Amino acid sequence: MTHTHITDFDPEDCAAWEGGNKAIARRNLIWSTATMHVAFSIWSLWSVVVLFMPEAVYGIKPGDKLLLAAVATLVGAGVRVPYVSATAKFGGRNWAMFSSLILLVPTIGTLLLLVNPGQPMWMYLVCAALTGLGGGNYAASLANVDAFYPQRLKGGALGLCGGIGNLGVAAIQLVGLLVLATVGNTKPYLVCAIYLVLLAIVGIGAALRMDNLDHGMEEVGGIRSILSVADSWIIAALYCAAFGSFIGFAFAFAQVLHVTFEETGHSAAQASLYAARIAFLGPLLGALARIYGGRVADRRGGSRITFLVFLGMILAAGMLAITSTIDDHHPGSVTTINIVLYVVGFIALFILAGMGNGSVLKMIPSIFEARSRSLDLSEAERRHWARSHSGALIGFATAVGALGGVAINLTLRQAYASTGTETPAFWIFLATYCAAAVLTWVMYLRRPPRMPATPGSRASRDNETALV
């Protein structure tokens, strides 16, 4: 089936949904997810290729490797809002195709840098920045899926899209592990070569199988209008703690493990292989947990699940902080038990952050669905308003959320530079999760927020509790 431009698509119309809209939504979900998955892999490309880059050959220190990850994350955050707007302006099909094929540029650039070591640092930084464009596909795909699905199914659809998309981190790390295990450090360009093929496949698939949907976000109300809503900033902060942890640790986990294994006396090559064997498990489990987080949030409420997630992250971060503090008091004696505690703590953070990604996103359409009830609009106009503002907030929240990943990489880098250990960073992460839990409790659990009423408002207390 070739693509179409759909101008009248109402996912809340049950008869039309069963009559064919469901199939259209599913097809666009599949290909939006596929393009996001591969783009997400490219976004995290440098978290893998640094394992192929011994300092003696490439002249890049551990702190510089974390800087490369931070640059990629920063660009990924910065382009998310424009990518959401581009999806609305050019169509989901058109933008998915373009944004996938443009990633061929940094993938080829990374391949050339790996084949020709010894280049100046700015070249690595530019290439890492361009891979950050893959982070923009995340927000664009979520906004596209959000527009296709009815309110009752948004949590599951967004969780599935985001979860499988997030699996791109684990997928490229697994590809890197297979390359390390089979050919060692001698042919790192194979990782890039594989993804050149995959980018071409999803770009062509998007062109043939996706649709351009009228998202209803052309009006200037989009991003600017949600900035005046206090909930937008609160949701962005919560998503920063949840998604920022996922993407930040996804980029840094392998590097932290590499440093830890070197402290136990392993060579750089051995440390890279051991780190690669473990590192992909965190993003893998976190991405799968995201799918579950979205579905359970549909049943139990996004704010409840989000609060429980942050409580769990407090415990996991506390384990890491205490374990690292003990290690600092016994330098040069990292034990197997300590390594196990590090791995368990990080894996727990990945799983919980993944669930939090899904549960926080579930809160977004609920916020504007509840707020739309206070507007003096027709039913069709109300749904249009809620969908357009939900898409705008997804773009804004996911952009801010990615900045959390930048903060994690820079915090770890500064901790290593200042103290030679990651312990201060772990304590900072612990304090952040405490603040996120308190914010969730105060704003959405202790008392559900009251939607603003207007003359002739149809708002009701039942709709106010939609967030819970």
Q: Can you walk me through this structure?
A:
The protein is mostly helical and 468 residues long. The protein has one domain (5-467): MFS general substrate transporter like domains (Growth Hormone, Chain: A). It has a two-stranded parallel sheet. It has helices at 14-43, 45-49, 55-58, 62-78, 80-90, 92-101, 104-115, 121-131, 133-148, 154-183, 189-209, 221-226, 230-263, 268-279, 281-300, 302-328, 336-372, 379-419, 423-445, 461-464; strands at residues 5-6, 212-213. The longest helix is centred in the C-terminal third of the chain and has 41 residues, at 379-419. Mean pLDDT is 83; it is low at 216-221 and 451-468. The chain contains 20 helices and two strands. This is Nitrate/nitrite transporter.
Average pLDDT over all residues:
83
The name of the CATH topology is Growth Hormone, Chain: A
SS content category: mainly alpha
Low-confidence stretches: 216-221, 451-468
Q: Could you give the count of β-strands?
A: 2
Taking the sheet with the most strands, its summary is: 2 strands, parallel
Overall shape: it is: globular
Q: Work out the count of structural domains.
A: 1
CATH superfamily: MFS general substrate transporter like domains
Radius of gyration: 22 Å
Q: Write down the secondary-structure element order.
A: EHHHHHHHHHHHEHHHHHHHHH
Distance from first to last alpha carbon:
40 Å
- Helix content range of the residues, please? over 70%
CATH class: Mainly Alpha
Strand order of the largest sheet: 1-2
> So, CATH architecture?
Up-down Bundle
Strand % is under 5%
Number of helices: 20
Main location: membrane
Subcellular location: Membrane
Membrane topology: Multi-pass membrane protein
Organism: [Mycobacterium] crassicus
